[in-house]
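Q: What residues go here?
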């Protein structure tokens, strides 16, 4: 029998201050355990929980969002609850902002008497953020949709000092998803368009992924580059790293094997493009962020765990590579020759 009515009724009932302060004790309640005990289809269970969020008590809805995050970690489909969880996240962020503005933790008891939802949001937000991270790390589309909500990123930045997990949410929202960059090789008269997914907004991260993609596509020794380090590439991709690999990554030092340069006049590479720069600093030429490739001219190195730490175990970073047809590459290079 469907448990929708039972769990929905429970989520709608108002939480008191003691319940909010007890946090995850809520999941041990008979009503929640009875619901979880009937679960045979994880996706159906998450759909039932998500349907209860909209009209639910702020604290209880947030904790059920957290339960959805746990179920996703255990194999549930992220697409089922993700949009409902993002709405809960945004709602709690707005309420938490007001909670802080009205005195925050020091005024919690008084605030609960006059504006209980502010306090409820404060206590459930850390758990909602964990669910949000779980889902945003797995769902590029959800990241794009949440970025389009113009108030979310400023709220995350404003409240970061009060809720530690917001640092990770802010970093995930800053990921380069669906972006493209053109790499032109004036010596070899070649051009490559690289598509970015889940790449951190520090060019060192892109360099690590791009060098590997170029080596695999163009072959060993392209532009005189030495082979990439498999351990560094695996860390940059964050593909199923084991605990031992996480530990060993603390000692990794990667370095530039190909020269990434500002495009120059006469189709010649100009200055070295810094790896610490953001993506937005890349010059845009004819609608595409564009850098030139050449043999490396300086020895730039970096610590991967310092420059692009793993934000979530499920967040894989990758670049796709498409080589331009010779005529298209020549046309792109001709812009600089002129």
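A:
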């Amino acid at each position: 029998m469907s448990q929708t009515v039972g769990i929905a009724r429970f989520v709608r009932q108002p939480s008191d201050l003691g319940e909010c302060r007890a946090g995850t004790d809520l999941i041990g309640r008979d009503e929640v355990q009875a619901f979880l005990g009937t679960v045979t289809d994880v996706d159906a269970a998450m759909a039932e929980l998500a349907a209860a969020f909209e009209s639910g008590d702020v604290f209880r809805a947030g904790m059920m969002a957290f339960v959805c995050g746990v179920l996703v970690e255990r194999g549930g489909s992220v697409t089922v609850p993700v949009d409902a969880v993002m709405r809960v996240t945004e709602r709690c962020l707005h309420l938490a902002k007001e909670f802080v503005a009205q005195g925050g933790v020091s005024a919690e008891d008084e605030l609960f008497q006059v504006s209980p939802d502010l306090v409820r949001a404060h206590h459930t937000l850390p758990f909602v953020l964990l669910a949000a991270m779980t889902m945003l790390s797995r769902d590029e589309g959800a990241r794009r949709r949440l970025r389009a909500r113009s108030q979310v990123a400023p709220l995350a930045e404003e409240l970061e000092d009060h809720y530690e997990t917001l640092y990770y949410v802010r970093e995930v929202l800053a990921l380069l998803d669906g972006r493209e960059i053109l790499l032109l090789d004036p010596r070899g008269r070649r051009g490559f368009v690289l598509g970015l997914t889940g790449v951190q907004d520090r060019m060192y991260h892109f360099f690590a992924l791009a060098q590997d993609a170029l080596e695999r596509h163009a072959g060993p020794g392209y532009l005189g580059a030495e082979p990439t380090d498999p351990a560094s590439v695996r860390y940059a991709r964050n593909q199923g790293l084991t605990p031992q690999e996480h530990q060993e990554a603390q000692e990794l030092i990667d370095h530039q094997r190909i020269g990434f340069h500002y495009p120059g006049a006469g189709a010649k590479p100009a200055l070295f493009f810094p790896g610490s720069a953001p993506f937005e600093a890349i010059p845009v030429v004819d609608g595409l962020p564009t850098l030139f490739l050449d043999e490396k001219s300086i020895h730039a190195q970096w610590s991967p765990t310092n420059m692009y730490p793993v934000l979530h175990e499920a967040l894989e970073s990758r670049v796709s590579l498409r080589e331009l047809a010779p005529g298209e590459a020549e046309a792109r290079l001709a812009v600089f020759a002129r």
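A: Context that may help when evaluating the design: The beta strands are 179-185, 190-197, 254-255, 258-261, 284-285, 288-295, 301-302, 318-323. The chain has a mean pLDDT of 95.
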